[in-house]
Amino acid sequence: MPYTVKLPPKERSPQLQGGSPCLPVPATPVTSVTPLPPPTAEPDPLSSAPPSASRGGVDPWPDTLPSGNRRIGPFGACVRCGAGSWARYGDTILCAPCANAASDATRSLQPSRDLVSEYRAVLSRLWLLNLPAAERSPEAYAADVADVHRLLAQQAELCDELGPAFAEAVSREHAQMWFEVMKACPGCGTAGVFHVTEPEP
């Protein structure tokens, strides 16, 4: 009678359990991968970029200053602090902080009451009296003279409140606008001629 030999069961290698027979099972299972931090952006050496677009939806540059409207020019040094900037107001180069400081200073000098509109209205009435009239009765002439004296007194009071330099700037600007509408010199009433008065140095 032939006999048989019962062999013990073959044990599987612990390195082959649960995986490919060609790859060992890692000692520590990998559950997650930590991403690398994003690269740090290098600082821009020209931090005062051209103010052609808003940053974060807010434009950091004032549109206009007493020296002129904002425009873009060659890169240069701010006249106040020396920082680089592309922005110019007239011929004055300013960086954003200095431009905003100048804008804040200009707003602080403006009166709370609308003295500018009052001053323009007085000037317009005075200039209307300069326009030549075909015929005027003595009564009308006397009334015009009385209006002139009254308006000149109002002009002097408003000029004191505004300050002579600011009042002169308002007068020059309004005179140009008045001439464009009325087509006559505000100072003498001559049609089609505008006699520009230069400010005193």
Tell me briefly what this model is.
With about 200 residues, the chain is α+β, with helices and mostly antiparallel strands.
Which helices and strands occur, and which strands form pairs?
Layout: E1 64-65, E2 68-77, E3 84-89, E4 92-93, H1 96-109, H2 115-130, H3 138-162, H4 164-182
Antiparallel strand pairs: 1-2, 2-3, 3-4
Helix pairs in contact: 2-3, 2-4, 3-4
Description:
The chain has a four-stranded antiparallel beta sheet, with helices on one face. Among the domains are: 64-109; 115-182, no CATH class. Helices cover 37% and strands 10% of the residues. Mean pLDDT is 74; it is low at 15-20, 41-49 and 52-58. It starts with 63 loop residues before the first strand and ends in a 19-residue tail after the last helix. It has helices at 96-109, 115-130, 138-162, 164-182; strands spanning 64-65, 68-77, 84-89, 92-93. Helix 2 packs antiparallel against helix 3 (138-162) and helix 2 (115-130) crosses helix 4. It has 201 residues and is α+β, with helices and mostly antiparallel strands.
Uncertain stretches of 5 or more adjacent residues = 15-20, 41-49, 52-58
SSE class: alpha+beta
Largest sheet: 4 strands, antiparallel
Q: What is the N-to-C succession of helices and strands?
A: EEEEHHHH
**DSSP strand tally:** 4
Discrete helix count = 4
Please state the overall shape, judged from the principal axes of the Cα atoms: elongated
**Cα-to-Cα separation, first versus last residue:** 138 Å
What level of helicity do the residues show?
25-40%
Cross-sheet strand order for the largest sheet: 1-2-3-4
Beta-strand content: 5-15%
Mean pLDDT: 74
Alpha-carbon Rg, integer: 41 Å
